[in-house]
Amino acid sequence: MTDGDGIVLGTNQYGKAENRVVRVYRDTPRHRIRDLNVSTALRGDFAAAHTDGDQRDILPTDTQKNTVFAYAKEVGVSSPEEYAVALATRFLVAAPSATGAQVSVQEYVWDRVEVDGQPGGHDHSFVRRGTETRTCVVTVQGRGADQRVWVVSGLQDLLVLKTTGSEFRGYLRDGYTTLEEVDDRVMATSLTARWRWSGTDGVDLDAAYASVRQQCLAAYATTYSRALQETLYAMGRAVLGTHPQIAEIRFSAPNKHHVLCDLGPFGLTNDGEVFHAADRPYGLIEATVTREDAGDPGEAWTAVPAFA
Amino acid sequence: MTDGDGIVLGTNQYGKAENRVVRVYRDTPRHRIRDLNVSTALRGDFAAAHTDGDQRDILPTDTQKNTVFAYAKEVGVSSPEEYAVALATRFLVAAPSATGAQVSVQEYVWDRVEVDGQPGGHDHSFVRRGTETRTCVVTVQGRGADQRVWVVSGLQDLLVLKTTGSEFRGYLRDGYTTLEEVDDRVMATSLTARWRWSGTDGVDLDAAYASVRQQCLAAYATTYSRALQETLYAMGRAVLGTHPQIAEIRFSAPNKHHVLCDLGPFGLTNDGEVFHAADRPYGLIEATVTREDAGDPGEAWTAVPAFA
Amino acid sequence: MTDGDGIVLGTNQYGKAENRVVRVYRDTPRHRIRDLNVSTALRGDFAAAHTDGDQRDILPTDTQKNTVFAYAKEVGVSSPEEYAVALATRFLVAAPSATGAQVSVQEYVWDRVEVDGQPGGHDHSFVRRGTETRTCVVTVQGRGADQRVWVVSGLQDLLVLKTTGSEFRGYLRDGYTTLEEVDDRVMATSLTARWRWSGTDGVDLDAAYASVRQQCLAAYATTYSRALQETLYAMGRAVLGTHPQIAEIRFSAPNKHHVLCDLGPFGLTNDGEVFHAADRPYGLIEATVTREDAGDPGEAWTAVPAFA
Amino acid sequence: MTDGDGIVLGTNQYGKAENRVVRVYRDTPRHRIRDLNVSTALRGDFAAAHTDGDQRDILPTDTQKNTVFAYAKEVGVSSPEEYAVALATRFLVAAPSATGAQVSVQEYVWDRVEVDGQPGGHDHSFVRRGTETRTCVVTVQGRGADQRVWVVSGLQDLLVLKTTGSEFRGYLRDGYTTLEEVDDRVMATSLTARWRWSGTDGVDLDAAYASVRQQCLAAYATTYSRALQETLYAMGRAVLGTHPQIAEIRFSAPNKHHVLCDLGPFGLTNDGEVFHAADRPYGLIEATVTREDAGDPGEAWTAVPAFA
Fold first, then answer.
1. What is the pLDDT of residue D106?
2. For C73-123, what is each residue's pLDDT tens digit?
3. Distances in Å between the alpha carbon of B257 and those of B193, B279, C91?
4. Residues 170 to 229 of C: which have CB under 8 A from any D CB?
5. Which listed CATH number (3.10.270.10, 3.40.50.720, 3.40.50.300, 3.30.2350.10) goes with C155-175+182-308?
6. Measured between beta carbons, which residues in chain D are less than 8 angstroms from residue C270?
7. Which residues of B touch C196 (CB under 8 A)?
8. Which UniProt keywords apply (chains A, B, C, D) (predicted)?
9. Which of B224, C28, D18, D39 has a CB 3.0–4.6 Å from the CB of A280, allowing a cystine?
């Protein structure tokens, strides 16, 4: 791996990113869909490809793509997590030089179109729900008895806003402080969260996703917030408190500032009524809530953007 | 406007684009919000600013911005359309050299967070709904008795997908044709629509938006589609058939191609089950559905992107 | 086109958008490339497709795509404009029901990688130049002796910034004015321009593009600006003054505000040294500079975003 | 940090992201600019803010923002790296509970506008150069004699394309392989790289950036590539071979696939002349080139996206 000058190959990985797979289940007239964006990565001893251009150990990213599409049929998508485990496990079979495989999935969720006289919505017509994306990152390491599987589930870009029930006061001051304390403000964020499973045996992962999302929303709504940090911590406690198989949850939350407009020059009051929704800069608050006995995360977070 | 060489100023306009206004109604504990992106433009005789740098007739874009925020309080936002009419009318008062004003609004819609034991959702916590944006473009021309007002309402980026009930056959062929006919396909689009009102007297514009959106969704779901054109036409007829004060509706619909994967090389069948959701290129289908007696649109569509 | 209720099809068009064509010229070891994004649209009598789902007059967008790629070889890309004229003309041959065709091209420009000892850069390795995109929109209407061709060339997203030589004073004031006059400011924009040719006979369109771009840059740099309007007008005069075959030019220029930071609270002066580059809102200044005898633009601007 | 149920706060950080600072040096008529996007983050013992909403140890993100702008004047921006070191060090002084601070900077590079008769370009008018962004991430940990500083420099989105000199053959095959070998192809990427300095004493960081960028471009151009992996390794060796103070370099390179179009159905040959530039999926190749004696990176890569 070296040319004698002490310059060598370090860690590396490769795969096919953003395979846009749509899986339709049409065994009954009431179709179901899973709309996915799947990225794969293999890790291991691929030095020859780098140093000598020798591809003999390389399972091409095109083959990884084919497997992604084929497995949508062959294995199916009972949940993004289970489908990702199947794919990552397959890659370790197909590529003997790989020591680990990571598969990331984004899922776009669709609702059925509501049509008069069709309770529960239309059989085969759908409209995209919300702004958030469901995610998972699955990492499989090793083979045989030593094989380890880590599952991280998540959501990204869940846009929430509260018009009151938030303050920001009593903070540290220095010579660069100009901010005034506020005891009532708009607080908004675009929440990203990732939760690591200690194990998924017996877990209905679709139901778990809906539950975690709802726990986050409810904690956001009902927590009086003295800082976004406090809200994130409350969300994390709510999720871990109700899901014993979740070992830890990581949040990344931009503080989407809503600036109260000064309407005084125009002879108008503004008691929390008119705000400018600013773009940049934004606060960025990131935190982990974990069980004390969460255990070593192993490779669960390798190459996953921090914090979420 | 000329320097004697026959090169002159032509049409022009200026304004402040993308004012991000959030208006909170908090007169009761059950808050309401309007989350808006407002753009303004003035037209008229502003030649001196161009040819001589003379700003005396120019109402600065900064002042337009201030008015946008002040009017969110002073006039309020009973609907994006009514707020835009108030703003455009104001600009013609403030800028005597302006002959016309156009105000465009995008509205991001929020749902209340569902919390246990709070029927109808939380009082002051919200979560963004869907992917689509509500829009309007209001144009006001002239002053006094000659003043004319045009209102165009719309929606953009309404993502819909149907897994069956669509075919594409019997088309024109030439030497560059390779496409094979399909009698069952996925059809998906990100719908943008704009509808011009012949008048808005007595119209509940919030209710009308919900109704037009639902008409489009239902027509999309229930029309067997031999082409995206046919679906757009059905949508347009549904909307005009139920809203007598809408003079015309314009659609722009990218055909978001879902390509059936060939799984044959892997010994798998694929009966409409696994698709690749392609990015580019995409079909782009644009059509207007109008009343025969719709009348001259005047300035309603000036500087509005075609078709929608 | 009607179902007897007075609701009918209005204007419509369809085509294939964003075909990403890369054409490599490799007849000598010194390769050349044209990197294009091509969108097509056909207009005419396509009512049956809308009202009855009858596709017999429809040249599929898939066929339009095939033609786009085939013509990159068959006709070649001597300039984006000439290639677009060939395509639009072809579509009118292929689709008898079409009365007009419009082809839009974006071109991404590449420089050769500089390598030691290779004057003029590497033979076949390229690096993307600048932020701006070259554009054209070609419209062909009619057939035979009546056929008309309109060519509009352009550039978009040319990012420029000047650190002095700009003021903003003497503007109209009203009750919503809070802006203070400035006699020295940063002025920045992301320029988009489109220029309509009265004819392109004998014009080297690649050279013309480079010249117009340079005229705009030089006018921007050397014009003392009392408003962005004055700068646009100076650019337009410079372009029309040197290119007699350009009939008119349209500019769209966001005023990318750079706000002087108040460093006073920290005991610091700020004499035009530290700015916050704001995102939104932004001024949007749009203007046309034209020849008095420019003549009727016909269909040149149909469905082209205003102003540029 | 616990409520007795074993659920506790884990790692966390907070700061102000994307402060858009433009610093103008105008001490001579020939102005210079630094156009920056600055993000800050503090780490340490901020548990009380999460668990009790107690802000007493929290230096607000608003104050961090003020410091970012003030330091652009007070300290200046001799290079993004030196400015970031000053900021991170300052934050550890200002926030006693912080144990570490990380400051990330993106820099947008501008060229002078070329104007007739002004050798070297215009004094105060600029046009944005290229597509790539210069980056750095600086991490400062601890205080006093124990304080450690890590500097990572980088570039992102350097778009390169070569029209020949690349093949892909001899790869591993399995039951999902359909890819055919190619011995001549277009290879393109949007390169992101980050290099960690073992130390920056005596390094001209602006010159180093230009040099690393040029090393990457030249290696890309002149390496015959049997895989993108081989090209990345060649780049890394070139950079480390010429910059002894760089300990390691990490690359992330999407393989922007250019698919040869099948023009056979139209009776045309296509000898590497017409390609479709595909969007998704794309290969994603990531690799580190390092010195064997690079030493422990410490906190240099904490919270930095892998690989680059």
1. 98
2. 999 999 999 999 999 999 999 999 999 999 999 999 999 999 987 889 999
3. 20, 8, 22
4. 186, 214, 217-218, 220-222
5. 3.10.270.10
6. 73
7. none
8. Oxidoreductase, Purine metabolism
9. D18
Is pLDDT above 60 for A138? yes
Instruction: Quote the CA–CA distance of D22 and D33 in Å, as a whole number.
Output: 7
Return the domain boundaries, chain A.
Answer: 9-146, 155-308
Nearest to A113 by CA among B230, B213, B229, B191: B213
Q: Do A9-146 and A155-308 share a fold?
A: yes
- Tell the CATH superfamily of the D10-146 domain: Urate Oxidase; (3.10.270.10)
Regarding the domain delimited by D157-308, which CATH topology (the fold level of the hierarchy) does it fall under?
Urate Oxidase (3.10.270)
Alpha carbon D203 to chain centroid distance?
18
Query: Looking up tokens 């009790």, which residue turns up?
Result: D52
Q: Which CATH architecture has domain B154-308?
A: Roll (3.10)
**Per-residue pLDDT at A3:** 61
Side chain identity, residue B141 = Q
- Ligand-binding annotation for C196, yes or no, is no
- How confident is the model over B32-56, as a mean pLDDT? 97
Identify the band that residue B1 occupies on the pLDDT scale cut at 50, 70 and 90.
Answer: very low
Asked if residue A281 has a cis previous peptide bond (ω within 30° of 0), the answer is yes
**List of residues 6+ apart from A67 with CB closer than 8 A:** A87, A90, A91, A94, D176
Task: Please say if the pLDDT value at position D68 is more than 50.
Answer: yes
* pLDDT confidence band for C4 (50 / 70 / 90): confident
Give me the sign of the Cα torsion angle D181, D187, D193, D199. Answer: positive
Q: Above pLDDT 90, what percent of chain D?
A: 95
Tell whether A54 lies on the interface with B, counting CB pairs under 8 A: no
Nearest CA to CA, how far is A11 from chain B (Å)? Answer: 32
CATH 3.40.50.1370 fits A155-308, yes or no: no
Contact D127 C33 (CB under 8 A): no
Q: How far apart are the first and last CA of chain A?
A: 34
Structure confidence at residue C247 (pLDDT)? 98
Of D72, D263, D276, the CB nearest to C20: D276
Average pLDDT of the segment spanning C119-144: 95
Question: What is the token pair recorded at C13?
Answer: 């068009």
Q: Is D116 on the interface with C (CB under 8 A)?
A: yes
**Residue D1 pLDDT exceeds 80:** no
pLDDT at C1: 44
Per-residue pLDDT tens digits for B100-117 = 999 999 999 999 999 987
User: Which of chain A's residues have a Cβ under 8 Å away from the Cβ of C280?
Assistant: 279
* Fold designation for A9-146: Urate Oxidase (3.10.270)
Chain C to chain D Cβ contacts (< 8 Å): 203
